[in-house]
Design brief:
By secondary structure, this protein is an all-alpha fold. The protein contains five helices and no strands. The chain is globular.
């Protein structure tokens, strides 16, 4: 992970568009933790599961947005804006394209 982040930093310094503030990423202090050993990672894992279940269809073709909606109040927002900060879909064109066309995902357009 450290090597990858160092590579990204070099690419940014060479002028490539890498949108990361490396002053806030302590590359040399990063460490790996075993599953279940870090409360922060457990919270991130729970949030990832909520996002996954809200967007990915199960074997019956259903999605479950209620988990994501229930954690919405604690998602990060910048100046009140969730999209692109606490909730980022890549590529960004998916928001206006796939999401707008897919019936099971239209609720996302109202998600704030």
């Amino acid at each position: 992970m450290r090597d990858y982040l160092r590579l990204l930093k070099k690419q940014q310094e060479a002028g490539q568009e890498i949108r990361m503030d490396f002053d806030k990423v302590p590359i040399d202090r990063l460490k790996a933790c075993a599953p279940g050993k870090s409360m922060g990672l457990q919270l991130a894992d729970a949030a990832s599961g909520a996002f996954f279940n809200a967007l990915e269809r199960d074997k019956f073709g259903n999605t479950e947005p209620r988990y994501l909606q229930s954690i919405s109040p604690v998602l990060y927002r910048h100046e009140g804006n969730l999209w692109g900060y606490g909730f980022k879909i890549a590529p960004s064109e998916a928001k206006s394209g796939l999401i707008a066309k897919e019936e099971s995902l239209k609720w996302l357009l109202e998600f704030k």
